[in-house]
Automatic annotation (TrEMBL), chain A:
Region (Disordered): 1-23, 292-370
Domain ABC transporter, first and last residues per copy: 49-289, 374-617
UniProt keywords, alphabetically: ATP-binding, Nucleotide-binding, Transport
Alphabetical list of Gene3D superfamilies matching this protein: P-loop containing nucleotide triphosphate hydrolases (3.40.50.300)
InterPro entries in alphabetical order: AAA+_ATPase, ABC_transp_ATP-bind, ABC_transporter-like_ATP-bd, ABC_transporter-like_CS, Oligopep_ABC_C, P-loop_NTPase
Identification of the protein by name: Nickel ABC transporter ATP-binding protein NikE
The organism's place on the tree of life at top rank: Bacteria
SUPFAM superfamilies for the chain: P-loop containing nucleoside triphosphate hydrolases
Biased composition (Pro residues): 316-328
Biased composition (Polar residues): 304-315, 344-368
Pfam families: ABC_tran, oligo_HPY
Similarity remark: Belongs to the ABC transporter superfamily.
Record organism: Paractinoplanes lichenicola
Gene Ontology molecular function: any one: ATP binding
From TrEMBL, chain B:
UniProt-annotated location(s): Cell membrane
Species: Paractinoplanes lichenicola
PROSITE patterns: ABC_TM1
The name this protein goes by in its record: ABC transporter permease
Domain ABC transmembrane type-1, residue spans: 94-288
Gene3D superfamilies named in the record: MetI-like
Entry similarity comment: Belongs to the binding-protein-dependent transport system permease family.
InterPro entries: MetI-like, MetI-like_sf
Bilayer topology annotation: Multi-pass membrane protein
Chief subcellular location: membrane
PANTHER family: DIPEPTIDE TRANSPORT SYSTEM PERMEASE PROTEIN DPPB-RELATED (PTHR43163:SF6)
Top-level taxon of the source organism: Bacteria
Keywords: Cell membrane, Membrane, Transmembrane, Transmembrane helix, Transport
From TrEMBL, chain C:
A Pfam short name: BPD_transp_1
InterPro entries assigned to the protein according to its UniProt record, in alphabetical order: BP-dependent_transpt_permease, MetI-like, MetI-like_sf
Listed name of the protein: ABC transporter permease
Record keywords: Cell membrane, Membrane, Transmembrane, Transmembrane helix, Transport
Domain ABC transmembrane type-1: 80-269
Topology term for the membrane: Multi-pass membrane protein
Domain of life according to the entry: Bacteria
Annotated family: Belongs to the binding-protein-dependent transport system permease family.
Length: 627, 309, 281
């Protein structure tokens, strides 16, 4: 679009040359800005924003997403904005390219891009000045078009010739093998990593000096994430300026020069990455860092506040001292409060699974000499020629937390379904509480069903949308209790309230619908429902993957408490090695349907024997903090 | 493989439709001979001819199979009222109806595309949505009557009735196109709205693409998918609507023949028109399903599994 | 008329304005009164007045008079009973049959499902109007044939919605996971599947009712419905058509009433749909 406000850096490069950034050098920007507020170092300011406010008008009160933040991005820097969902980090990033939304109201005392105040010719700036990379390339690239067409579109919009060669060069520059063939393929035909590379190539196509990456690795497996981070680091080393948006401090710590921590639209703390991570000054940053589960956090509470059940004996109504656990400030408990049973979890390998201090339970498995709750032998599941799970042997003992870790497609969820009895195995068998579990008709399994519960990643879909919280939990209670009082009062029984209190929720939620709850509350309700039939084993399939790190911390603490007080065994399935290392006693590492390594969690993670385990551990972005 | 499966399904549906029509004939009160003969000349000779032609003296199963076999060959029986094979009757009258239907379909699709793409601003949407609601909720014959009284009776721009020439096609085609356009616009707009919420639209905008280009190059193709599903339904409106529109505007065509056959209980013609329309429906629907594969690469059988990392 | 009977009712539409919903609900209430107690609102629909034939709308005759001097408004009011009754009964037939067959297809074996689904396909291969004409050709013109024909022709739509909804609910996490509480399959179906499948049906039926009324008007316009002098709307339009060049009100005004009724049903139905979706995602 020919516009009178044509940008000075409108990319009209020499058609023979690659885009500037591809050659690793940048056209120097106009020097006029350097004299004015150039920040600590005298490099060119690409973005300079003061007192930025972004508001979304809404019928029930406006949403004030960004509340007066200041942001400078210098040429060649990597700046990261970190925050949990709803912190305003993505809105901030999108505002820089004028994409906050058609109804967004943006105010600021200064808004300069490339040294110029507005109004901006956004269409030239987008792609030309700043490239945008979003989370999941499967939906962030048009699924109906080839990736070659998607990359070429950027070139066409910015009037850059020689498209075919450039598309190939761009794909090569992001290390996509066989670029000519890949360019003709659609996003769904590419693996997650290749897709993300193609998306990055399209963002870089017109040679923008600034690359904005909004959660660029969140949808990826850990090994792929590591490769994409390498790619971004490579671009950064070549001179590209990066603005990284992430919920994950560890991801950020690997790349960023400077970190800004956002919460509720404010920047609560900012500074050089090393300083901020090692010596955080703001309490929220401290909480965030403390909430990250890892090897270092084993046996320690992650969240700022104890859940109700940790102070309450099992099966007794908890005093409702903490009916609403949400505001973390209300507690004075230091965040390093040791869990009540540190000693147990510290020495899992010395234990055979049955531990002291787990007396208050009357479960059937008490009578089992071995204490084995579930045992899978030679489990195999195939769909036609495609083997999803191959010869998996697995044992969970009473009171034990067993981690099952693997990347997407490793078969870990299929293992959960086989154990839960949703699908029959192709071969192999499962014994539950010492009796056969697979090979039975559902009718014969039914009486024992309550002893085995499941918690899934997305609790919203696990609740009947028409039912209230009270009714949802009451459904899981044994029929005797239900008959006594629930039928009359529709889910308002004492038993239901006791369960809610155990997971740290108040009775005020009884009449809510699942949709009206926050993500953390939903997962707590799911846990309460799983506890209701007093199971001996709960299979947790990625139960915290959809949660923010501080909420994840509370849920992990709650699960640890439940094991400690009830002696309920957990099979904890996750892609997150940090979560597993924090919580589990033993771990199984799965890849392509096969368990490649298993053992006590410290042994496996500190001294991995299998090369895949090593690769996994190496790929985990470590949080470089000295605690 | 998908193609073969789809074609087989189409055949099964067609068979079921022909069977349903045949059952309707059997279910008619009175003897089958009475039904077939309708208001036509009733002589012992014709009766004998019908019994012989439809094989009514043979077992029911044989009759049914015979009916299917002849239908498969395109032999749809004989109208005793008109004294000629039904196939000829249909072939004679299909022309004007086809012209009307195609003109209306094109006009409706064009109008829908224009409206869905151009009315993106809130006030324009409001106006367009109201228009869609009204044309979809109005009986088509009322639309025809109103157009007729304005443009033919009052203004005299178009002939009141008849099927000759382009001028006589305008009002019927517009009448039939309006409800089609109303529904298609709703579906297209909804599809565009959904697509515009997708992350790839943010990516496209972040490349510097203008709104119109995002709409036409990205969102519209996604919006076409649900619209294509409606093709079969569209055909139903067009054929059913043709019967009414031809009556209102006094046009010759398949609709008039059908109506006449219904009023005089000329079963072979009614049956043939119904089975014929089911045939066209199945063909169109199968084509629409296959065109899905052209629009959406995700539905195509994968030549290679995702590779690389 | 075969209008929009099989169109996807799940289309996400803009929220109708509050005033619009209010007006639509008011009009529906009026139509209901007209259908139940037409005498409250209007005089004798059959009272001919040879001295006032084909008179335009006036204070005495708001909608004018027809070729026999009958008050058009009185006839429209009395016609509400016919049209609504035909629409309601046809929709009831369609919803009931669609519900049963859809549930059967959704809950049974995959071969039974395949057979049922193909027969829904076969049934919807006939354009509604042609299917209805086939019925009339077999059974002769009349209200009963009309109702049955519209009911059968619109049934596949409901059956398909119910079937696919049943599949969605059956595979929903909350149903697969409820297995863990040791309840029987029957109980799961009764407690979780049925209510979640049935939920959207009343709203669909309200919108579908408008379309059944349109279809009935179209068929009786062709002379396939209630016979004169019954004040049925489609039949009135058909009668008035002969006088179109001299008395537009005898056709256009009853037609506008049909349109308003259908619009009102659609607006109210969509409003309920939004409310419903808002409460249960």
């Amino acid at each position: 679009m020919t516009d009178s406000r044509v940008h000075p850096r409108t990319p009209t490069p020499d058609p023979q040359a690659l885009p500037a950034s591809l050659n690793g050098k940048h056209v120097p920007l106009t020097a006029a800005d350097e004299t004015r507020d150039a920040g600590p170092d005298a490099r060119t300011l690409l973005v300079s924003v003061r007192e930025l406010h972004v508001t979304f008008p809404h019928r029930r009160g406006d949403v004030h997403a960004v509340r007066g933040i200041n942001l400078d991005i210098h040429q060649g820097e990597c700046v990261a904005i970190v925050g949990e969902s709803g912190s305003g980090k993505s809105v901030t990033a999108r505002t820089l390219v004028g994409l906050a939304g058609s109804n967004a109201q943006v105010r600021s005392s200064r808004f300069e891009i490339d040294g110029r105040p507005g109004p901006f010719d956004w269409r030239t700036l987008r792609g030309g000045f700043a490239g945008l990379v979003l989370q999941d390339a499967l939906v962030s690239l048009d699924p109906l078009r080839t990736i070659g067409a998607e990359i070429a579109e950027v070139l066409r919009v910015h009037r850059i010739g020689g498209r075919e060669q450039r598309v190939r060069a761009l794909l090569e520059s992001v290390h996509v093998p066989d670029p000519d063939r890949r360019a003709r393929q659609h996003p769904h035909q590419l693996s997650g990593g290749l897709r993300q590379r193609a998306l990055i190539a399209s963002a870089l196509a017109a040679g923008p000096p600034l690359l904005i990456a909004d959660e660029p690795t969140t949808a990826l497996d850990v090994t792929v994430q590591s490769q994409i981070l390498d790619l971004l680091a490579e671009r950064h080393a070549a001179g590209e300026t990066l603005l990284l948006i992430s919920h994950d401090l560890a991801v950020v710590s690997r790349l960023a020069d400077r970190v800004l921590v956002m919460r509720n639209g404010h920047i609560v703390e900012s500074g050089p990455t090393a300083t901020l991570l090692s010596a955080p000054t703001h309490s929220y940053t401290q909480q965030l860092l403390a909430a990250v589960p890892s090897a270092a956090s084993r046996g320690r509470r992650l969240s700022h506040q104890p859940t109700a059940s940790s102070t309450t004996a099992p099966n007794q109504p908890a005093p409702s001292t903490t009916p609403n656990p949400v505001p973390p400030q209300s507690s004075t408990t230091p965040n390093s409060t040791p869990r009540s049973s540190t000693a147990q979890t510290r020495a899992p390998q010395s234990s055979t699974g049955v531990r002291a201090g787990q007396a208050p339970s009357t479960s059937d498995s008490d009578q089992l000499p071995s204490g084995v709750v579930i045992e899978a032998t030679g489990l195999r599941k195939g769909y036609g020629a495609h083997i999803v799970v191959d010869d998996v042997n697995l044992t969970v003992r009473r009171g034990e937390i067993v981690g099952l870790v693997g990347e997407s497609g490793s078969g870990k969820t299929t293992v959960a379904q086989l154990l839960f009895g949703l699908t029959p195995p192709t071969s192999g068998s499962v014994a539950f509480e010492g009796a056969p579990w697979t090979g039975l008709t559902e009718r014969r399994r039914r009486p024992r069903r309550r002893r085995l519960q499941l918690i899934s990643q997305d609790p919203l879909s696990a609740f009947d949308p028409r039912w209230t919280v009270g009714r949802i939990i009451a459904e899981a209670l044994p029929a005797s209790i239900v008959d006594q009082d629930t039928r009359r009062r529709r889910g308002r029984s004492d038993a239901v309230q006791t369960l809610l209190e155990r997971v740290g929720l108040g009775a005020d939620l009884l009449d809510r619908y699942p949709r009206q709850l926050s993500g953390g509350q939903r997962q707590r309700v799911a846990i309460a429902r799983a506890l209701a039939p007093r199971p001996s084993l709960i299979i947790c399939d990625e139960p915290v993957s959809a949660l923010d790190v501080s909420v994840q911390a509370q849920v992990l603490d709650l699960l640890a408490d439940i094991r400690d007080t009830d002696g309920t065994a957990l099979l904890f399935i996750s892609h997150d090695l940090g979560v597993i290392h924090h919580l589990a006693d033993r771990v199984l590492v799965m890849r392509d349907g096969v368990v490649v390594e298993q053992g006590p969690v410290d042994d496996v993670f500190h001294n991995p024997q299998h090369e895949y385990t090593r690769a996994l551990i190496d790929a985990v972005p470590a949080l470089e903090v000295s605690r | 493989m998908i193609v073969v499966r789809r074609l087989l399904t189409g055949l099964v549906v067609l068979w079921a439709a022909a069977t349903a029509a045949y059952l309707a004939l059997l279910a008619a009160p009175g003897s089958t001979v009475d039904s077939i003969i309708g208001d036509g000349a009733d002589t012992p000779l014709i009766r004998a001819q019908i019994i012989q032609e439809w094989g009514l003296d043979r077992p029911a199963v044989v009759q049914y199979l015979d009916y299917l076999w002849r239908a498969a060959q395109g032999d749809l029986g004989r109208s005793y009222l008109l004294q000629r094979p039904v196939r000829e009757v249909i072939a004679d009258q299909i022309g004007p109806t086809l012209t009307l239907a195609v003109a209306a379909a094109l006009l409706g699709a064009l109008l829908a595309l224009t409206l869905a793409v151009t009315t993106r601003r809130p006030w324009a949407r409001r106006v367009s949505s109201t228009f869609e609601l009204v044309v979809v909720s109005t009986p088509p014959f009322l639309i025809g009557i109103v157009l007729l009284s304005i443009f033919s009776f009052s203004l005299g721009w178009f002939p009141v009735s008849g099927g000759q020439g382009f001028a006589s096609l305008v009002l019927p085609a517009v009448t039939l196109a309006l409800p089609v356009a109303g529904v298609l616009t709703q579906v297209l707009r909804d599809g565009i709205d959904r697509a515009m919420d997708e992350p790839f639209v943010v990516t496209a905008r972040a490349r510097g693409l203008g709104e119109r280009a995002v709409l036409v190059r990205h969102a519209l193709r996604h919006a076409l998918l649900p619209a294509v599903t409606l093709t079969g339904w569209l055909f139903g409106i067009l054929l059913g609507g043709a019967v009414i529109i031809e009556t209102v505007f006094g046009r010759p065509g398949l609709g008039q023949v059908t109506l006449q056959a219904v009023n005089s209980a000329d079963m072979p013609v009614v049956l043939a028109v119904v089975v014929f329309s089911a045939f066209v429906y199945v063909v169109i629907n199968t084509l629409a399903d296959l065109s899905y594969l052209l629009i959406d690469p995700r539905l195509r059988p994968a030549p290679a599994t995702p590779t690389g990392a | 008329m075969a209008l929009a009977l099989d169109r996807p009712l799940s289309v996400r539409l803009r929220r109708p304005s509050g005033a619009g919903v209010f007006a639509a609900a008011g009009f529906l209430a009026l139509a209901l009164v007209a259908a139940v107690l037409p005498g409250l609102l209007a005089g004798d629909p059959l009272a001919a007045d040879p001295l006032h034939v084909l008179e335009g709308p006036s204070a005495a005759h708001w909608f004018g008079t027809d070729q026999l001097g009958r008050d058009v408004l009185d006839r429209v009011v009395h016609g509400a009973r016919h049209s609504l009754l035909i629409g309601v009964v046809a929709t009831l037939i369609a919803v009931t049959a669609g519900l049963l067959l859809g549930l059967l297809a959704g809950l049974t074996h995959k071969y039974a499902d395949e057979a049922l689904s193909r027969s829904f396909d076969a049934l919807s291969a006939f354009p509604l109007l042609l299917l209805a004409l086939l019925f009339v050709a077999v059974a002769g013109p009349g209200t009963v044939g009309l109702v049955v024909a519209i009911g059968i022709a619109t049934m596949p739509h409901y059956a398909r919605v119910v079937r696919s909804q049943t599949f969605v609910v059956r595979q929903a996490h909350y149903v697969t996971q409820a297995v863990a509480f040791g309840h029987s399959r029957t109980r799961l179906v009764l407690r979780h599947v049925l209510p979640n499948v049935l939920g959207p049906i009343p709203v669909l039926a309200v919108i579908g009712l408008g379309e059944a009324i349109l279809a009935a008007a179209g068929l009786s316009f062709l002379g396939m419905g209630p016979q004169p002098p019954s004040p049925e709307w489609g039949a009135m339009l058909s009668e008035g058509r002969g006088y179109l060049s001299v008395a537009w009100w005898t056709t256009v005004l009853p037609g506008v009433v049909v349109t308003l009724l259908v619009i009102s049903l659609t607006v109210v139905g969509r409003h309920l749909q939004r409310r419903f979706e808002g409460r249960h995602p």
